[in-house]
Amino acid sequence: MRILTDTDASLTEQYTALLVRRRDADVHAGGVRRIAEVAFQVNEKTENIGARRLHTVMERLLETISFEAADKAARR
Hints:
mainly alpha
């Protein structure tokens, strides 16, 4: 969880910045904890690539939202 929240330019900050313009966004602690749990579980079941797994989980989680964000921004 600390990697997702405590580092400079953490993944949660990066994705928030990519998805939200001119709005406040908040990544809830429960969501961050669940992302960390999923990354841990995947690392346990497959090759353990450590914290790099967090990026993959975040990418998959936000894939559809990221794809649709461009369309929504164009409609404004």
